[in-house]
User: Fold 2-dehydropantoate 2-reductase from Buttiauxella brennerae ATCC 51605.
Amino acid sequence: MKITVLGCGALGQLWLASLYKQGHEVQGWLRVPQPFCHVNVVETDGSVFNQTLIANDPDFLANSDLLLVTLKAWQVSGAVKVLVGRLPANSPILLLHNGMGTLEELRSIHQPILLGVTTHAARRDGNVIIHVANGITHIGPGNEAGHHFSYLADTLHNVLPEIAWHDNILPASWKKLAVNCVINPLTALYNCPNGDLRQHQNEVSDICHEVAMVMEREGHHTTPEDLLYYANQVIESTAENISSMLADVRVERHTEIDYITGFLLQRARAHGLLLPVNSRLYEQIKRKENEYERSST
Ligand code: KPL
Assistant:
């Protein structure tokens, strides 16, 4: 396949390297246009992929079979809207990011959209991307036109396993949202690795209670206990990790809070629910973000 990867951060480079190794034709797409992108990935087995690949080639984009979007949630809809008219009409766009809400922002787009959530962990260390842990990527249709692309699961599974196709991706997206609502703001506020949240079980449990209330109203059956069990599993399996939100805060970058806790609060409001614990966390992260964003302008 011919695939353009939009966003060449940790996850983007991991996909570029994996696709290239499986013989797919790939290019990167960067916001600041440049003809090449450097991909430097250390795999989980220690092997290194270090190649310069083409980037921002409009002809390649116009013939791409897939646009894989690995940007941060808040960058997605703006960037996709700019590129969508330059893709073949039936080529799907696969969104892989933390949080939810981008589908609503892209509602006017008729291009097939797929949504994915992943538990692969990759982080930047200087100029190198470390593939920290293998995981599962759940993908499924994000709009009506996206329903015909289940075959992609097999193709992508051969590239970066595991891939699971879901005719309804929303339950998997909500489960991941629940974990991000717990781990991301708490680690950013306590400035700690994920594993330290073992010491903050009351807050972890309160967040899960509130998320479960919203999920039930959204029609996804769950219980606070299920979410707490799952969140604690992820806290254990990623104990050494620095969450993406803490990483953003440390380098004073815009965070994904509006698409994580912010999305949860928006859905809660639509159901007339008040979420005091998540509202407080949202305010605290926004205050932090505003402080450094204001001082940099
Ligand atoms: O997705 C993550 C993130 O850091 O954004 C978790 C699951 C919390 C792992 O760190």
In short: The mean pLDDT is 97. The radius of gyration is 19 Å.
